[in-house]
């Protein structure tokens, strides 16, 4: 079960790396604007904020990926703690997104589903 949870956590991390790229690198491109539903003008005005927010997503992804590497190296307690902290923060960010703007349900679900599944499976693995 732990392996399944780590795969889900890794997928969540990869999704957050992709979000980082969209927000911090590609924010003003048509692709990112279409993804986030912003106009050229809105993207230009919010570029600095998106750049910063993208790095939050990257840092969460790095936290989870480092945790996975640490688990694989044999330090389960430390590694799983990092994975849990990272995926719980990803899930928390998704909850903040949906509670701050109900029209962002789809984005919040996309952002939060994999971390939630990883946490549930880790919980099951812990009690099994």
Automatic annotation (TrEMBL):
Keywords: Membrane, Transmembrane, Transmembrane helix. The keyword tRNA processing does not apply. The chain crosses the membrane at residues 56-73, 80-98, 110-127. It holds the Pfam family DUF1304. It comes from the Bacteria. This is DUF1304 domain-containing protein.
């Amino acid at each position: 079960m732990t392996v399944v949870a780590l795969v889900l956590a890794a997928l969540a991390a990869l999704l957050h790396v992709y979000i980082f790229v969209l927000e911090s690198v590609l924010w003003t491109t048509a692709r990112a604007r279409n993804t986030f539903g912003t106009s050229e003008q809105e993207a230009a005005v919010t570029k600095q904020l998106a750049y910063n927010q993208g790095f939050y997503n990257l840092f969460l992804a790095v936290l989870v990926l480092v945790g996975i590497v640490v688990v694989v190296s044999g330090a389960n307690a430390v590694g799983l703690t990092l994975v849990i902290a990272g995926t719980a923060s990803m899930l928390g960010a998704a909850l903040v997104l949906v509670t701050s703007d109900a029209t962002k349900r789809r984005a919040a679900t996309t952002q939060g589903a994999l971390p939630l599944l990883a946490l549930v499976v880790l919980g099951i693995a812990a009690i099994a």
